[in-house]
Amino acid sequence: MIWSWIPGNADRILALLVEHLRLALIPIVAGLVLSVPLGWLANRYPLARAILVPAAGVLYTIPSLTLFVVLPGILGTRILSEINIIVALTIYTVALLVRTIADALAAVPGLVIAAATAMGYRPARRFLDIELPLAIPVLVAGLRVATVSSISLVSVGALIGVGGLGEFFTEGFQLQFPTEIIVGVALIVLLALAGDAVLLVIGRILTPWNRQAAGGGT
Amino acid sequence: MNLFVQVVEWFLDPAHWSGTRGVPARLADHLAYTAQALLIAAVIAIPLGAWIGHTRRGGFLVVGAANGLRALPELGLLTLLVGFVGIGLLPLTIALVVLSVPPLLAGTYAGVRNADPAVIDAARGMGMREHEVLAKVELPIAVPLIIGGLRTATLQVIATATIGAYIGLSGLGRFLLDGLARNDYTQMAAGAVLVAALALVVEGLLGALQRLIVSPGLRTAPARGRAPRQAPVVAGGIAS
Known about the structure:
By secondary structure, chain A is mainly alpha-helical. Chain A is built from nine helices and no strands. In chain A, helix 2 (10-44) packs across helix 5, helix 2 packs antiparallel against helix 7 and helix 5 crosses helix 7 (123-153). The longest helix of chain A is centred in the N-terminal third of the chain and has 35 residues, at 10-44. The relative contact order of chain A is 0.14. By secondary structure, chain B is mostly helical. Chain B has a single domain (21-216), classed as Orthogonal Bundle (MetI-like fold), CATH 1.10.3720.10. Chain B contains nine helices and no strands. Chain B has helices spanning 2-12, 23-55, 59-68, 74-85, 89-113, 117-125, 130-160, 173-181, 185-213. In chain B, helix 3 (59-68) crosses helix 5, helix 5 (89-113) crosses helix 7 and helix 6 (117-125) packs across helix 7. The termini of chain B are far apart. Chains A and B meet through helix 3, helix 4, helix 7, helix 8 and helix 9 of A and helix 4, helix 7, helix 8 and helix 9 of B.
């Protein structure tokens, strides 16, 4: 470990950190936005569930490097385009969250929904104001898994030339310079843990009613 | 659809099916890397998870390992290990074992830990010793979750074994990275099809295995959809 390498390359480390964060965060946000309506569909209609949940399972089994490599052929993008990584990680996020959201919505007690209906909530309002908030704890748990794996998976993109901090892995390997690799690993782990912690806090803030349940873990 | 035709032609070319660079040889290598890593991980994770689940000591370790290691980038680990142990199969195996221990450990731990206390008390009441309780009662009950952990681990290992090609090893990743180096998109796409197909086939086989070896007494279908959650679960058909 050559510590002096770090201050000497601070600009590049920061630039790759920002790129890494961008490559990981866009898919998480896009995946969340896409999977809420899909999860709603899967919960509402048994047929949609029978199609969406197995399809999500199949998508999740496709290895990341495979998806990074195959997407340019499907999307018509260049191999070195960031879009491949972003689309691939969005697919993983959706694959993970559709099932989670469908299960979380299914777990909302029928009496609560009946009460909301009796109070005059129409289906759309009821979904946004009652069912979705009650699904938040499970949703956040799924989102934390998606976020941590997304941040870690971005680095595989370095093998096809776009990988944020993963560039330190391929470069450190070629130059036989472990310091670079250690810095990359450490930053990715820290970034993942930070993302996890942020979501944990957001989840707590959004579900004040859960705070009374003492010691309730995820 | 031009690419599709090219990939089909690639698969039909007999030259891609023979020798050490052919599909069968690389598929066999890929499976060998995967099996080796999973075997080592199972030898470490299943006894450890069973012990922690049985004694209920150190559960925080399992949760911490399962959560923390998910953040570890395998490519970084692999390239770093090459610096320490040299190039070859060893760094890949270590990286894959590190990847597959957490899901196996978590599955075994959760399976053993979640065994109904009444069932364990009954086993003790019948005069079983602690190791018998673990081997004859808790572990069979834990089988569905252990296999669940094994499925997760296997999929991750099959996917990650592709990066072995980056440090010069064989396996299906070679088609991806060699194709990338030569701008041979057809070969990359063919490699991608092979890895995805392998992942799906193995996932299907493990699903079938699970159905085959899980005790019939545990095969109560989990509540789905809007089924009332309060419905009492009547195990073994004995109404209370």
